[in-house]
Automatic annotation (TrEMBL):
Part of the 50S ribosomal subunit. Contacts protein L20. This is Large ribosomal subunit protein bL21. The keyword Methyltransferase does not apply. The gene is rplU. Keywords: Ribonucleoprotein, Ribosomal protein, RNA-binding, rRNA-binding. One of its GO terms (cellular component) is cytoplasm. The lineage of its organism: Bacteria, Pseudomonadati, Pseudomonadota, Betaproteobacteria, Neisseriales. NCBIfam families: L21.
Length: 103
């Protein structure tokens, strides 16, 4: 059984017991959260596709950790113009563990 859920502007394929890193969620560590934007649920041969969301479907998850991702380096340059600009960015994330998929 798996589902496709939308959180933080991105879509993720999730299964029970799986850990994944999503955009930062304002919740404490070991807190239970509910993801309600479920786009699709697959249970064996039964496939439920929402228009756009599956009615009554939710994902229950536990917050495992918060952190920051790898540094992304931005380098801009204009040739022959003596222009160089360096910048870095680290995106915050929340690691969650999927506990249940409720149809």
């Amino acid at each position: 059984m798996y589902a496709v859920v939308k959180t933080g502007g991105k879509q993720y394929k999730v299964a029970i017991g799986e850990k994944l890193k999503v955009e930062q969620i304002a919740a404490d560590i070991d807190a239970q959260i509910v993801l309600e934007e479920v786009l699709m649920v697959v249970d064996g041969e039964a496939v439920s596709v929402g228009t756009p969301l599956v009615a009554g479907a939710t994902i229950k998850a536990t917050v495992v950790a918060h952190g920051r991702g790898e540094k992304v380096r931005i380098f801009k340059m204009r040739r022959r113009k003596h222009y160089q600009k360096r910048q870095g960015h680290r995106q915050n994330f929340t690691e969650i563990r999927i506990d249940a998929i409720v149809k």
